[in-house]
Amino acid sequence: MLDRPLRAAIVGDVNVGKSTLVNALLRHRIVVTHHAENTAWNWWFQAAGPDGPRIRVIRRDRPGEDTYKITDSAEVAALPAASVEKVIAELDEPVLADLTIIDTPGLHSQVQENSGRTADLLGVHPRGEQETLAGVGKADVLIYVSDQLPGSSDAERIAGGFRRLGVGSIKTPVDILLVFAQVDKLGFKSQNPLARAAEIAAAHRPEWESVAWNVKPVIAQLAQTARCGVLDASLLGALRKLAALPKGREAACRSVDMLVRRLNTQVDESGAKDLWQNLLPYGLSLGFALADRGELTAENLAAALEKASGIAALESVINDIFRRRQGLLRSAIAMRRLSHAAFADGDTRTLSRIEDMYASAYGRELRDLNDLRTASDQNTPLRPGQREELRVLFSGDYAGTPGEAAKAAVRWLRPANVPGTPPVLRTLALHAAAAYGRLAESKESR
Ligand SMILES: Nc1nc2c(ncn2[C@@H]2O[C@H](COP(=O)(O)OP(=O)(O)OP(=O)(O)O)[C@@H](O)[C@H]2O)c(=O)[nH]1
Ligand SMILES: [Mg+2]
């Protein structure tokens, strides 16, 4: 537990683009993506060991595992779901240093067997009404992918899907990054869709902050196209022909059928479909702009698609909130498991040692992280302003003066001393007062 890499599971409803995003992060087109429901088991991606890159298939129908070459991933994907327990792909990719990425079958799938595998991984029941199986989940943090922006008619599914699954009782927002996928569907006539999605996300913060630490919009399809060696000579040739159509190239981008029809004398049907599938209307428009300037090369198009996809900004958030803090996150998970077990066994000696550890200077970071979890948990009875204040304080982002910190320390001592304050709030308030007290001192001594 303490020396394995942090595990990030990519979860979300069927067909939102989870596997496309995983391929883009891996810079490898390895998981098959499809317009129909697709991923049937969990794909674990981890750093290659001494045996080099390979795919291991853990069987369900018999003991043992089979090994495949990375280039045989399509063969693996075609195996019958009933015979596969899980697949572990070991790759030499920088994103996998210190981080295991797990692609999962869609939630709320028609095929309950598939969604059940994701529920198993998370340690929840696929039907959330029942009690959750807290503590047996195998994923440490979640990257929750949604194609519904807040404010849309279906947006309740973002928070509702979590509640129904019972994820909220085992993971707090500290463990979850929300990704708004397929934001190219917002349209791009007047404004860049990433910027529009970011504005919408900011305006609807209260709707998502109860489930996630941060939100990033992404166009995974364009990221995959930019990074996975798709931009070959035949695709660029087809794009050049489309860009040079005497009139109505924009109209040809209204649907895949229109595109096939408009290009039919110059490009075969599968070439036209590839163009549509890989670039989407938004990527085609970026290609036209390059063609008009005489700058349409594979490198230039890849750079434009990468920029338009938002993938680099997403990676930097993954680094900030998960990779950079992974040692701390892993220690915290190990400590929580230890205290759960000690509590279940009535082992008071271990429980009091854990208490001592949290109280020591050595345990302070762990305690701050626990307080951060408590403060961002919607079940903790805090006012919105207080919740935000504590999140800033316990993430180490406080930027006030020593005088302000000293005043805040006094302010937080009050609820701690009011009779009838719930114990969870009392502890949190005492910790907040102490944290502000330390900040006041350390800033003064600088
Ligand atoms: N418009 C648009 N379509 C996308 C984007 N990303 C993926 N898609 C399409 O959405 C469909 C589903 O993509 P997948 O990556 O297979 O989705 P998934 O969430 O892994 O699906 P399951 O594994 O079945 O749950 C495919 O047809 C993709 O081409 C995107 O950014 N924009
Ligand atoms: Mg998938």
Automatic annotation (TrEMBL):
GO terms for molecular function: GTP binding. Gene3D superfamilies: P-loop containing nucleotide triphosphate hydrolases. InterPro entries: GTP-bd, P-loop_NTPase. Residues 8-151 form the G domain. This is GTPase.
